[in-house]
Each structure stands twice: as C-alpha cells, then as structure tokens.
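User: Can you recover a sequence for this backbone? Please restate the input before giving your answer.

Assistant: Of course. Working from this structure:
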C-alpha cells in the first residue's frame, strides 16, 4: 500500500504538487492520470525518495522509502526505461540490481523469461529498441518479487502484442493481491486496465474514485433511439416526462433506462430500429474534468501559409 498525506513540492514560487492526499490500495490496478505538467512524475519520484517533499509525507507499507531495507523487495518501479548502463548486457544490468538488494541470482533468469528477453539476455542494452528497453525496465521492477509495483507509461514503445501482455501482467499482479499503480496518457489502454483512478491537475487532487464512477460523474449518459414512427414516439416520451434531444435523425433520451423506453414503445406498438445505451469514453470524461487544469494548449486555428506557385516571390538564383 502507498499512502500520501498532504504531499507538496515547490520549486521556487511554482507549486508542482499541492497537498496531495490519497491511498493506493492492494488488489486493484490504480490508474494515475493528469494533463502534461500536472505533477504526476514529481509525485512518483517523491514516492521513491528521488525528490524530497517540501511538505507532507509518503509511506510505502507504512515506512519511508529511505527506511526500507532492500527496497526492490518492497516496491518495484519503472519510471524511465533508459535509466540503465548501455554498456551492460540485459543480464548484467539485472544482476547488479539483484546483488545490491540481496536478491538471488536465479531471479534474473526468471524475470528475463517473464518479459520475453531471454534470447537477448547477453546483448548490450544500448542496442535495444524502445520496446525492448521497456521490457527490461519492467523486468527490473519485478526483480525483487515486490508487493508494490509502480509503472510510468509502461506501454510506451511496445507493439500490440506487448501492450496486450503488459495489460494482462498488471491485472495478474493485482489479482495476486499486490498494489499496482500505473500512470499513462493512453486513455484507451487505461480504460481496459485500471479499476480505480486518481486524477490530478496543476498538482491538486481532482478525483479519487472507481473507473465506473469517474466516467458516470464526468460525462453524459443517454439512450439512443431510432424509429420510423418518430413523432409518435416523441409524443409518448413527452407524456411520460422523459427528456429527449433530437440528433441527426435519432432521439437521445436523457435519464431513462433502455428497458423502460423499450417497454413504452411496445405498449404503444411503436417499431424501434435502434435502442442502445450510450456512455462517454474515459478520454471524454477525463477531458471534461481536466479542461480547466490543462497548462499547455495547442491551437488548431493557426493559419498555415499555402505554398506559392513557382515564380511568385521565389529567388531562382
């Protein structure tokens, strides 16, 4: 378990992390979301003792990170896949980590096999692709067989097979009762992986809730209906006190259940061509919640200069 209490980090006048309090619990995958510059990386670095908090406290299974004996056996982390000696082989990189934390040598071969790098174990890390580097970083996180795992952008550089593998790995680790904390900008993948979400913006906590509750609270849910008897269905729904929005030939019914609408239509012998509940994606809910916390905005309306025909202002010399 990871516990944060009033965690704060200032760099001069800038507050990177502002009084964060939340708990990352075992047995589930907890997603950590926020716009660029929200303070996610700084928070994770403070969890691992890499940055010292200006105020507040963070504990790993009840202890400060610098008080952990053989910390890789408590918490394994992937923060930067490039944080390794490029001149060492994958095997020797992991062996050095193992020796520094009292981990048996046999564990190195085990984690290399787990992440699919056995065939390149003797190759130098500097020759690895981004995806291979990610796998080696994940192997390092798993090395001490820790009860807590922390991953920052774990699918970066992985191919579809690798993304599927890391998703199932994180779910499996949580299913074993471990604490799994993962930060990612890939919303579609987070929606498939995380059970719980912690969302921050401009260093402050915006949400600490289940995936389902987060989407429900920060998006619009409705039932989409299509029928050849449009006007008749509208009359029936209005008489029932149901709010309806007309949209592109379909009806969008707010605050109603699909079953109830279907039963109403059947009672009045109205033919339906579509009756489908609609809910926003995690990405849409995230954009809705964090709209006012985005620090860096791109502008799509910037005029782009069109290429000039040859001879109009060109210097031919």
């Amino acid at each position: 378990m990871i516990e944060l209490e009033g965690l704060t980090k200032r760099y001069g006048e800038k507050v990177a992390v502002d009084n964060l309090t939340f708990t990352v619990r075992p047995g589930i995958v907890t997603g950590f979301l926020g716009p660029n510059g929200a303070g996610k990386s700084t928070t994770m670095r403070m969890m691992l003792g890499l940055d010292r908090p200006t105020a507040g406290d963070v504990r790993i299974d009840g202890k400060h990170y610098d008080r952990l004996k053989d910390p890789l056996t408590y918490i394994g982390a992937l923060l930067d896949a490039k944080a390794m000696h490029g001149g060492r082989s994958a095997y020797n990189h992991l062996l050095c980590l193992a020796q520094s934390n009292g981990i048996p040598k046999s564990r190195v071969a085990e984690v290399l096999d787990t992440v699919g790098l056995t065939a390149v174990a003797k190759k130098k890390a500097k020759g690895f692709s981004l995806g291979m580097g990610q796998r080696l970083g994940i192997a390092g996180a798993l090395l001490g067989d820790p009860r807590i795992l922390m991953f920052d952008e774990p699918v970066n550089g992985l191919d579809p097979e690798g993304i599927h593998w890391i998703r199932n790995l994180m779910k499996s680790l949580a299913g074993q009762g471990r604490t799994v904390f993962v930060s990612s900008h890939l919303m579609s993948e987070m929606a498939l992986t995380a059970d719980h979400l912690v969302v921050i913006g401009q260093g402050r906590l915006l949400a600490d809730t289940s995936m389902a509750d987060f989407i429900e609270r920060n998006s619009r849910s409705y039932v989409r209906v299509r029928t050849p008897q449009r006007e008749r269905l509208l009359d029936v729904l209005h008489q029932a006190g149901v709010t309806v929005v007309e949209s592109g030939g379909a009806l969008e019914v707010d605050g109603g259940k699909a079953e109830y609408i279907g039963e109403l239509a059947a009672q009045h012998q109205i033919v339906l061509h579509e009756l489908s509940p609609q809910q926003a994606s995690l990405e849409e809910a995230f954009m809705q919640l964090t709209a006012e916390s985005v620090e860096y905005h791109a502008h799509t309306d910037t005029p782009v200069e069109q290429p000039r025909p040859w001879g109009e202002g060109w210097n031919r010399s």
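That completes the design. The first strand starts at residue 2 and ends at 11.
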